[in-house]
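User: Sequence in, structure out. Go.
Assistant: Echoing your sequence, followed by the structure tokens.
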Amino acid sequence: MKIAYADPPYIGCAHLYRGHPDYAGEVDHGALIERLQRDYDGWILHAAATPESVAVLAPLVRETGARWMAWVKGFAAFKRNVPVAYAWEPVIVKPARKPVVSKRLVMRDWIECSITLRRGLTGAKPEAVCHWAFEMAAARPDDTLDDLFPGTGAVAEAWRTWRLKFALPGDPVAASPRLGSAPSASRRQAGAP
């Protein structure tokens, strides 16, 4: 199955990435969600916990069958003149298939994990958050993952390490990450102007 991981610049925050090589301005989230629905069996979309973000995204994902989940940040960046820290963010997940309950993992619609620091780009996701998101999307090691906003490459690396959890010695899963389309082409198609 094909799964998309979309961690775009959050609504109103594209300017923070102006210096990045694949910067394309504000993301058209309507076009992005339309593409996720059309081209993928399952998908993961990170978002900001701001009223503007929720107001824009809620009607767009309402009919998709996706579920709103939460990444709770045990350690988060505190900003001057913001009295209550933004210490969680929505993660919207549409599973590729029905998740299987097993003794291997307790399935929750939230994860607590501190932010990453010094990863080269604001908002780079921790490996544990990516692994959790793969599980919530009911991914399997033989699925294909398209990282639509590759940034630091953290999602691709997390996909590789997550797949290794299921690999036996000599298994081809251990050798090659099954990533999908080229990142530079994906960004423009994913809803960036």
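User: And one key feature?
Assistant: The CA atoms of residues 72 and 112 lie 5 Å apart.
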